Amino acid sequence: MHFLNRPAGTLPALAALTLSLSACAAGPSQPPPQHSAPTLTHNCQPQETVGFSCELHDHRLLSMCASPGFAIFKGLPKDNPGYAYLVVGTSEGRVQYSYPPNPYDYKQHFFTDVPSNGIPYMFVTSEKGEFFFLAERDDTDPLGAGQWTPENLPEGWSVSEKNKPRACVRVLEFDNFHAMGVTHASVWRLKEWERRKAEKVKASQP
User: Fold this and answer.
1) Contact 11, 3 (CB under 8 A)
2) Do 167 and 132 contact (CB within 8 A), yes or no?
3) If we measure between CA atoms, which residue out of 14, 69, 61 comes closest to residue 38?
4) What is the pTM (predicted TM-score) of this model?
5) By C-alpha distance, which of 121, 123, 114 is closest to 136?
6) Which of 4, 85, 175, 177 has the smallest number of Cβ neighbours within 10 A?
7) What is the spatial distance between Cα 21 and Cα 39, in angstroms, rounded to a whole number?
8) What is the mean pLDDT of residues 135-141?
9) Higher local confidence (pLDDT), 142 or 176
10) DSSP string across the chain
11) Is the Cβ–Cβ distance between 205 and 134 less than 8 Å?
């Protein structure tokens, strides 16, 4: 064999030269394609009903999610066997907060009504009281009027836009808002206003 008499290291050198020539012939190498994470419009599960979803000031998503078919339930809201919850998470789908802890308890925390101006609204309560409010969009308010009541946020929740005039900077999903059919209880809200007013009066007294 001719290769037996070659100096040590000749074969590796030839192999390296061959690989180098092949690489040159193939042209410059291309970096692997970068696949960015998809940007979501809500943080609900794929099969769930999206009641609404919006982008917060810190670019996280606030969504109301419900069980499949929730918005097309034909009975009274109190008889709906489904579930609903409010969720905050990143635009990449990482959930940070959800409420209530048991989504089937939503009837104790989600309330909707249509006042005299005809613009439906919804509010969500914690054990402390109402902590989120959202009105349906109309011609005078195309983004909807979402707002926090910071002192009533659920335990562990943190929002950076506590002092902003509205919670959402842009609405991403809104088609099912009017059809969600959560508990209609405007009387609860009136009682809540009266409770807050009484507390303020008591606090102002010497």
Assistant:
1) yes
2) yes
3) 61
4) 0.68
5) 121
6) 4
7) 43
8) 62
9) 176
10) -GGGGSPTTHHHHHHHHHHHHHHHHH-SPPPPPP-PPPPPS--S-TTSEEEEEEEETTS-EEEEEE-TTGGG--S-GGG----EEEEEE-TTS-EEEEESSSGGGGGGTEEEE--TT---EEEEEETTEEEEEEE--BTTBTT---EE-GGGPPTT---TTTTSS-SEEEEEE-TTTTT----B-HHHHHHHHHHHHHHHHHHH--
11) no
How is the chain split into domains, by residue range? 49-199
Q: Length of the chain, please?
A: 206
Better pLDDT: 138 or 132: 132
148 is written with which tokens? Answer: 């926090």
- Find tokens 């009641």 and name the residue: 51
